Amino acid sequence: MSVPSVPDPSRRTVLVTGSALGGALLATGPTATRAGAADRAETAIAHDDPWRSVLDDADLVWQRMPTTWYEGPFLGNGLLGSGIYAEPSAAPGTAPTAVRFNVQHSEVQDHRPEFGSLFGLARLPIGYFTLEPVGAITGLDWRLSLHDAELTGTLTTEKGTLSLRALVHNDRSLLAVEVTPSAGERDFRWVFHPADAISPRAAFKPLPDGYRGNPPAQVADHGAVTAAVQPLLAGGQHVTAWRERTRGRTRTLYAHVTHSFPRSTALDRALKAVRAAALLPYSALAVSHRAWWHAYYRKSFLSVPDARIQRFYWIQLYKTASAARRDAPVMATSGPWLEPTPWPNTWWNLNAQLEYWLIHGSNHLELDAITRTLSEFRSNLAAEVPTPYRADSLGIPRTTDPHLVNGAASALMGYGVGIPGQDPPTPEVGNLTWALHNVWLSYRHTMDRSILRDVLYPLLRGAINYYLHFLEPGPDGRLHLPATFSPEYGGDSRDCNYDLMLLTWGCRTLLESAELLGVRDPLAPRWREVLAKRAPYPTDANGFMIGADIPFAKSHRHYSHLLAVYPLYEVTGRTPDERALIERSLAHWVGFEGALQGYTFTGAASISALLGKGEDALRYLGELMTRFIKPNTMYQESGPVIETPLSAAQSLHDMVCQSWGGLIRVFPALPAAWTDLAVHDFRTQGAFLLSARRRGGATRWVRLVSEAGADCVVRHGIQGPVDVRDGRGRFLRCSDAGDGAIHVPLRKGESALITAEGDRPDLTVAPVRPNEDAPRWGLPGSRSDRRES
User: Fold this and answer.
1) What's the average model confidence in pLDDT over 757-784?
2) How far apart are CA 214 and CA 199, in angstroms?
3) What are the structural domains, with CATH classification, of the chain?
4) HEC string of 548-595?
5) Cα–Cα distances in angstroms (integers) from residue 237 to residues 110, 212, 232, 266, 526, in the given order
6) DSSP assignment, residue 547?
7) Given pLDDT bands bounded at 50, 70 and 90, which one contains residue 599?
8) How far is Cα 75 from Cα 168, in angstroms, rounded to an integer?
9) What Rg, from alpha-carbon coordinates, does the chain have?
10) Which residues are 534's β-sheet partners?
11) pLDDT attached to residue 24
12) Within 131-181, where are the H helices?
């Protein structure tokens, strides 16, 4: 490493200031793609704004009518959600006569725990509005602007046109739809259709004995506001209130949903919310709404030369902020966009974990509902383990309501988490420990000691304590687990890998956390004993088994038997034998067709990225896109679920940057075709913000900003000797950390710029040019239409 010169101050750059950008150097990217008519006045600004450029390019478009949840636009703010598609025609095979705007809310649920989380505590459907034109619908041209989180466009009918703008307001949990009709459509109307307040699972499974739906909603006018009041048999209510206002030729619908339990206070709150909102025209509501979304996107930046994947990625960032907020419930399987589903609540043996992984690298910890929820409702975690263990143990069953209550199993048996070695219920013990791995990721990406001290350490201690009650020494001198369940595979097994892997990670993390916190925990010797003596992970000639009693011998979508590889990074291929074990296990797992699903391929992509196999990772993502992702980037199994597309964004993160094991790896698993790539303010473990640029197949520069002063070791990927400068261009004395990595001494608030020795690259972050064109997401029209959109 040589002493560099200070960068040439004459080099043309644009310095962007402000906390969202951290003073990063940015410059204009390629010309933004053609914006919609409503955006053309801002094209000069768009050309100068990298975020606007990639977001406009990622907008979803519709020139054909969406007919399902999996095709239409979607709006949301973590609480209120609206999916938009055609109202099914009364006559099969005929054109739709109306457009449905669903109205669903993530807090609206039933409160009858005696019927369990899937019926008695299920999220409840609310209803939908139909936009009913005068004439038959003949065409549409819609655009979902990610940048503004708004749907805009035109609906064409035999009688004229309806120009519309729609949003779910970021702060007000308000659906606002502004419609400007032509003369022939001035008598269009809005109609609200209350849903039956019954668990959506009823469409798939028999009702439990004694269960019945809630009584019908009661619709009444309250002055200028109309409200549909849904009483609940358990007490409380949810209310949908709405009003339409006319200003000139424009009519605007304002709709709000409120839930209250056990009191019936939702009506008054809903009426007040609509009355206050209706005082404002749509354009005034849009100002604060857009401001939040514009600031949200600017917390990070990523551009890759695959147009379809880049657009998909930015749509997932939009989708996540539409479905998640720190103070909202942990996402249910379909987010806030509830539809008929066999899974009408929050799932903890994969779904919740995968839904939130992307918030860390993309620098969006403001969406972390898992950490808040596990902390706020921790008393319910004790209630889900059997009574003899509640003094020191915690657990979470497969599915719960937003307050971590399971319901029926707890009411029937006194607990919701199974007992190892006993059945029923199926002893699926590791779910809380896996959920706490998400909390650990939030700690590691922020280095916020309060997360470690107040949430992770006490809750993980309780989760691991439950395991410790059942560990048994065997004749081989090892500690063994009685039979537990590996999610979704079927059958219980001793020394189940799902649990052994989580137990190992949990004990190691507790020991490290105790040291960091300065805690002398009396259980520390027991945790060390577990790490030293626990049974080895069961394997056979094909790789990791389900457990000691069950080989991996059939098609299986879940990677529950591979958690030590990903996401725990306990088995990483450090030795040739370990790498071969991972490769055998991965090939054997995905080699069984039949039960594979979308998240099989996101898991396979991330494991391939761990091994540095960028071509394989891209191939698995391609399989996902081709076989499973729907036109609007939603996903379907037996019902609508959203975790898989969100986890695909994390797989892309794993290709671009990995930071496990105390080492930041820049561009560790890129396919050869990705010769150009840009990343800015990507958040890594250790609370570093990473910016980097790849050009012509070579990494040109890497910049790291330390938010916490943690140890900084980076494998930068720049060939040959490097120069390392601080934020003022001064030389930083770094040390070789081996295997292509360097150790950079950074204190809190300091930064380091790494370049090839003597190189003075253009320090800009801008979109990269795609290798080839790709159709937009949504339902674009003909091929020529797609080229123009």
Assistant:
1) 89
2) 9
3) 63-298 (2.70.98.50)
4) CCECCCCCCCCCHHHCCCCCCCCCCCCCHHHHHHHHHHHHHHHCCCCC
5) 9, 16, 5, 6, 49
6) B
7) very high
8) 6
9) 27
10) 479
11) 35
12) none
